[in-house]
Amino acid sequence: MPGIETPRAVLDLDAFDANVTALAQRAQGLPIRVASKSLRTPAAIDRALAHPQYSGVLAFSLPEALALHARGVRDILVGYPTVDRRSLKLIFAEAGAAKNITLMIDCPTHLDIIDRARDAWTAEGQGDHPAQRVRVCLDIDASYRLGEGVLGSRVHIGARRSPIRDTASAVELAQHVIARRDIDLVGLMSYEGQIAGTADAGASAKQTVVRAMQKRSVAELKVRRRHIIDAVRELTELEFVNGGGTGSVESSTVEGTLTELAAGSGLFSPGLFDGYTKFRHEPAAYFVTPVVRRPGPGWVTVFKGGFIASGVPGPDRVPTIAWPPGLDYSGLEGAGEVQTPLTGPGTEDLRIGDLVWFRHAKAGELAEHFNDFLVVSGSQVIDTWSTYRGEGWVL
Q1: pLDDT at position 73, please?
Q2: pTM passes above 0.85
Q3: Which one in 36, 126, 136, 369 has a CA-CA gap of 20 to 30 Å to 362?
């Protein structure tokens, strides 16, 4: 990449497009809502949405949803509850926002916060405007609890998300929504992170246990989710039932309870997605950084590189060294904030200024470190796509 300053983030457009198609094929006709947190690059979101099987966005924050709405994105589901009162007031102030953005809730307090934001907006001189209805979605806990009947929540496998787990609690919250003025319950969502976000490949005892857990979780969730959906639909008509993720497309699709899937990580296919048995997407997102030192025989040092993924700290949170082959981290330094020593036979042909290619362990988090992606096709740089950071979005 002569003449291009590094470190830089790079997106292989051919691999990205192949992943868009592969994910759609895996979904077997179900619409896919783009999980924007896994991309955090407006042009990448737009390109996915251009495919006929992708519809709508699953945003991670209300400020992000408002920023995407201002760019023309419609049908946005905010995947997490918000207590951002300023942004909630903007839902009423910005034309069309209340009709196109759906808020996530999992308790009556979230409804109280929405109502107070509406009251504050009205008190600020907007009383002559007609009341705008707010769309909300119930977040249903999709985690797996081993021996729940005896152990309760003590063995909880999956994301700690919603307190709404069974039919009774879902119905009770749905009734709270129905009783509120100008708030419409339009959907249900449940994210099975213990399946979608947990790699299952490998012959170790741990991976054998993971596969057994996932099989049991798929069976348990299919029954529980169906009961919840049926009960809520007796109270009100739902526009959508959302679930799944890149790692659980197969099981989510055949379950028969969902009207749409949510996925995004598979479009970039980060390092953590190398460890799944049911699919393999093409690595599409990289960062490149130059060799700046040769501290001794069998060693090179590259600039920066310590882009560690969120989650439980461990070796799987470190960037994958993609090229050249034969490189490994220093056991004492690892991937560093300002420098990353590398060792192994792959160092032999590297010189000062040569580039080493890495893949972040998680998809969208790479965009938090760079203002843009260099978009390449084949051996050519064909475009530059700004990330949220490059757009100046603080979300």
Answers
A1: 96
A2: yes
A3: 136
